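Run log // design_07
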């Protein structure tokens, strides 16, 4: 009997896993949805979280308490669905999530939740420096400014609500300036000309830290134009202008004098003004008010490229400005017709270096250094195909060469 029982025992052990496997294959999917059913005081920034075993989400339906459908989009990682607009305060919503297993069986889970009343907490003001229906240069980062700054412990939650889509796809990452006043998004390489970039900063009602909320949802879609880059060399006192890797023109310049030097670094044209006024009253080394033509901002601190007919005799020879790049009236007018906001500008060989965050400084560091500033993991496969801080003549796309932060209109 003992001998006979042994084969039976062995048979039972080998049959068990097969039976369990068949049962697992036939098991319906299991769905967990957040917010949990009957949750109250949900932020209006809420999204529908989904967690599925033995299957995948095949349908999500979100409706308000009047039965109206609420459009939502899935996250790329499948972890949830984000409403296209913030939810309304003090309203009830129902989410119905359906998942389908490999066997074809389905499971549906419902949850009903109620949003919080309008918050009395102070709002963090955000400014999106990426305007709709514009054409930008190939180095234009998507830039958000914050006032007050975002504390480190809140940056991951904020970053998860910042969405960028590109067509054709050029994935990138967000990176935070150390003081939390600014976050910038770029890809490892400059944008390819013709790329369409769509941005949503979905921060309205988002809890930020313990004492604040996000102020607004902001959206913009723009496109990338031709590639123009400017290389400014203090050693030669010359600006070299490139288009698609080819030299268009060399322009004599006068940079900042010793007491007010121009910053060396890789920056981006931020604004363009046919006419503006530099008012430096109350600033160190300032005290003057002057009207200027054809001014292009490079830093929040007030460094511009601009027309300076008063220094044309020094341009190409001597630095006489208060930190700006002075060019002739003719050259400044020509540049205004060639450049775009978002064009790369590199200044070399001056006495001081550009501070990170003083302008759109996403290209002033290597890709690896930039990626370290992300509050969320960055995919390991994202790497530049060219120098992380490219030579001005390098062609975008990786081919070989051929609130807002405090701003100043000091100029000079």
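design_07 sequence
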């Amino acid at each position: 009997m003992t001998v006979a029982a042994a084969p039976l025992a062995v048979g039972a052990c080998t049959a068990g896993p097969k039976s369990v496997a068949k049962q697992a294959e036939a098991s319906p999917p299991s769905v967990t949805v957040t917010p949990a059913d009957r949750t109250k005081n949900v932020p209006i920034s809420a999204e529908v979280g989904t967690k599925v075993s033995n299957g995948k989400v095949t349908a999500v339906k979100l409706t308000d308490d009047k039965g109206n459908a609420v459009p939502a989009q899935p996250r790329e990682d499948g972890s949830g669905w984000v409403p296209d607009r913030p939810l309304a305060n003090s309203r009830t919503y129902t989410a119905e999530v359906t998942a389908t297993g490999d066997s074809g069986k389905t499971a549906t889970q419902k949850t009903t939740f109620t949003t919080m009343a309008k918050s009395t907490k102070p709002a963090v003001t955000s400014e999106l420096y990426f305007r709709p229906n514009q054409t930008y240069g190939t180095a234009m980062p998507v830039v958000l400014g914050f006032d007050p700054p975002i504390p480190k412990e809140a940056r991951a939650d904020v970053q998860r609500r910042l969405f960028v889509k590109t067509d054709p796809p050029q994935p990138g990452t967000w990176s935070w300036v150390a003081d939390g006043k600014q976050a910038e998004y770029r890809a490892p390489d400059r944008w390819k000309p013709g790329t369409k970039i769509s941005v949503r900063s979905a921060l309205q009602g988002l809890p930020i830290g313990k004492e604040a909320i996000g102020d607004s949802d902001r959206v913009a879609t723009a496109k990338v134009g031709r590639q123009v880059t400017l290389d400014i060399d203090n050693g030669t006192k010359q600006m070299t202008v490139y288009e698609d890797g080819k030299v268009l023109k060399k322009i004599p310049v006068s940079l900042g004098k010793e007491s007010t030097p121009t910053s060396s670094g890789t920056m981006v044209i931020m604004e363009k003004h046919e006419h503006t006024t530099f008012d430096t009253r109350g600033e160190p080394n300032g005290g003057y008010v002057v009207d200027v033509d054809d001014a292009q901002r490079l830093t929040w601190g007030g460094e511009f490229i601009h027309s300076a007919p008063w220094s044309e005799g020094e341009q190409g020879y001597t630095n006489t400005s208060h930190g700006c790049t002075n060019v002739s009236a003719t050259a400044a007018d020509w540049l205004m017709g060639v450049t775009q906001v978002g064009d790369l500008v590199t200044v070399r060989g001056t006495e001081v270096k550009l501070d990170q965050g003083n302008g759109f400084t996403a290209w002033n560091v290597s890709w690896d250094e930039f990626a370290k500033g992300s509050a969320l993991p960055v995919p390991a496969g994202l790497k530049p195909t060219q120098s992380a801080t490219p030579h001005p003549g390098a062609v975008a796309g990786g081919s070989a060469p051929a609130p807002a932060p405090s701003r100043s209109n000091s100029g000079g």
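The longest helix spans residues 2-26.
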